[in-house]
């Protein structure tokens, strides 16, 4: 995480209130805009691409989560931000649609707090090679929604705190 990364501070209606340095926002628990990308494929059943966060991540290292997630830049369209980050983290392109949004707060053992208004973005896998950035992604795998639900119920500690809420929105959008 570079010291020059900024997030967009927002209220509960996603109205911009200014910016803050990313680490400062997470240290102070400031509400900011974020997005979670979910990429699905049908081959022959519906599957979701999950990633395991790299061990070097500043929070939630080694946990399984949605395809990718991040924060839009100032004046960056949320869908364009999702496409940019998908390519940066996993090395492929996909068209995305906005499936919904939700707010969550999660506290981490290292003292950081996620307080995000999270936009859920959904796309379909194009078949391009997956080329993960090892600084961001420790591993990736495809999973059916049914198996993800089972794993989330059995071992929620293996997953990021936002995944379940975001997944529920993403999965409803593809039904």
Topology:
Blueprint: E1 6-10, E2 16-21, H1 22-28, E3 32-42, E4 46-53, E5 64-65, E6 68-70, H2 78-90, E7 96-107, E8 113-124, E9 137-143, H3 145-154, H4 163-174
Parallel strand pairs: 3-8
Antiparallel strand pairs: 1-2, 3-4, 3-6, 4-5, 4-9, 7-8
Q: What is the domain tally?
A: 1
The biggest beta sheet is recorded as: 7 strands, mixed
Instruction: Count up the helices.
Output: 4
Q: Unreliable segments (pLDDT under 50, ≥5 consecutive)?
A: none
Instruction: Estimate the global geometry from the Cα principal axes.
Output: globular
Brief digest:
This protein is α+β, with helices and mostly antiparallel strands. Helices cover 24% and strands 38% of the residues. The chain has a single domain (6-174), classed as Alpha-Beta Complex (Nucleoside Triphosphate Pyrophosphohydrolase), CATH 3.90.79.
Structural overview:
The protein is α+β, with helices and mostly antiparallel strands. It has one domain: Alpha-Beta Complex (Nucleoside Triphosphate Pyrophosphohydrolase). It has 4 helices and 9 strands. The strands form 2 sheets. Strands 3, 4, 5, 6, 7, 8 and 9 form a 7-stranded mixed β-sheet that branches. The N and C termini lie far apart (36 Å).
List keywords for this structure.
175 residues, 38% strand, 7-stranded mixed β-sheet, 24% helix, two-stranded antiparallel sheet, 9 strands, Nucleoside Triphosphate Pyrophosphohydrolase, globular
């Amino acid at each position: 995480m570079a010291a020059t990364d900024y997030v967009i501070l927002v209220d509960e209606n996603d109205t911009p209130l200014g910016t803050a340095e990313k680490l400062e926002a997470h240290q102070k628990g400031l509400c900011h805009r974020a997005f979670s990308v979910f990429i699905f494929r049908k081959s022959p059943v519906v599957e979701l691409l999950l990633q395991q966060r790299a061990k070097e991540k500043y929070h939630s290292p080694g946990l399984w989560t949605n395809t990718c997630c991040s924060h839009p830049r100032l004046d960056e369209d949320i869908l364009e931000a999702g496409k940019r980050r998908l390519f940066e983290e996993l090395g492929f392109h996909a068209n995305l649609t906005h499936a919904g949004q939700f707010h969550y707060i999660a506290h981490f053992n290292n003292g950081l707090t996620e307080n995000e208004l999270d936009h859920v973005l959904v796309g379909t896998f194009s078949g391009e090679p997956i080329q993960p950035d090892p600084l961001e992604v420790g591993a990736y795998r495809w999973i059916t929604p049914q198996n993800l639900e089972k794993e989330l119920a059995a071992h929620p500690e293996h997953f990021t705190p936002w995944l379940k809420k975001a997944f529920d929105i993403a999965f409803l959008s593809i039904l």
